[in-house]
Amino acid sequence: MSDHHHEHDHAYMHAHGIAHEHGHVHENQKAVVNRLARAIGHLEKVKRMVEEGYDCSDVLIQLAAVRSALENTGKVILQDHMRHCMVDAVAAGDTDAIEDLCQAIEKFMK
To answer: How far is the CA of 91 from the CAs of 19, 63, 110, in angstroms?
Structure first.
């Protein structure tokens, strides 16, 4: 199997959400997992604040911080996807992957 054929298969699998072994490691995978773990921990704290009757303004401020952390994590994922997965898709002429990315961006940025 040529490398070009492998790239097309990889891009196709990404475009169609098919679970697969990656030919490359996502550069920021560990950073993304760490960011998500911190956001989950922060969200748990916000939940406890609500349970303990904290001031609504304080809860909203902390909730905004969690939302910001998630949006920043999404940016890291998007950048990683553009630099790696989309490079493979473009090289393989996979326009479906590009359209899928556009739809994902639309949902992410609502």
So the answer is: 21, 41, 29
Report in angstroms the alpha-carbon separations of 99 from 37, 42, 49, 57, 104. Answer: 30, 34, 41, 40, 9
**Residue 101 to residue 110: CA distance in whole angstroms:** 14
Using the predicted structure, report yes or no on whether residue 74 has a pLDDT greater than 50.
Answer: yes
Measure the N-to-C terminal CA separation of the chain; round to a whole number of Å: 41
More confident site: 29 or 55: 55
Give the Å distances, CA to CA, from 61 to 49, 68, 109, 110. Answer: 11, 11, 20, 20
Q: What is the pTM of this model?
A: 0.68
